[in-house]
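Page 42, continued from yesterday. The earlier attempt failed because a stray header line got pasted into the input along with the sequence. Redoing it now with the clean sequence only.
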Amino acid sequence: MSRRGGRVITRQWFITGCSDGLGFALARAALAAGHDVVATARHETALAPLRQVRGGTLRTATLDVTDPARIEQAIADAGPIDVLVNNAGHGYLAAVEEGEDSRIRRTFEVNFFGAAALIRAVLPGMRERGGGTVVNISSVAGFLAGAGSAYYAASKYALEGLSDALAAEAGPLGVRVLVVEPGPIRTSFAGRSLLSSPSLPAYADSAGRRQEQIRAADGNQAGDPDAIARLIVELVEEETPAQRIILGDMAMRGVARKLEMVAGDLNLLRDRSLATDFGT
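This time it went through. Structure tokens are written below.
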């Protein structure tokens, strides 16, 4: 719920992946702010604790984002959606050579294709009403890929590319797009929900070491899901929020390093790059 010009505005949020972690925190924060929420998860019973939150109205639904028919039905049952949050996702740790086809495809089905299908399902209604917000939960790995996270990062890079194009296409129609790039969050992401593949000795000092670090940090990550959720709810209500929401010290430092690296490459190759155009 927000106030603009003396009017109280209650929005309907549709959030995927709410069984725990950031999705659960987002549903709780939106409800506490007075908004109506459709919270979804593959196992609807996991959403029962949300009924204790006072504020807006809660509805729950079973949703596997890899099931196109269920997506269409869930969106139709929800009614007009003001805010779509594509939060459902999972991690996958493997060096490029270690990747297993079934796990690579599963990662993209959940992290990218599911989100894209949900966006396509809500856009007609948002266009007709002349407004709406799509919040895509990406990761700092969607901007800065490291050893051992090749396929997870690739799925998030794909989501970010889609988000940039969507902002250019649907922005003039009143639809805003926010991309959330958190660093490590204290959820089950690096624990029971994290996929991995058998390691090859050749990558022990790169992908293998990074996988060990991620698993060792489980339960001690710096990111507070409740604080992140509250900030996202606040930003959705702002008139002109940042399109990319970079969250946490690790993410901020990582993004800054990559921007410096890209700027260095631009300067290093500027003259030779410009010379590749006709007429130069």
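Notes: The helical segments are 21-32, 68-78, 101-129, 150-170, 204-216, 225-237, 249-274.
Reminder to self: strip header lines before submitting.
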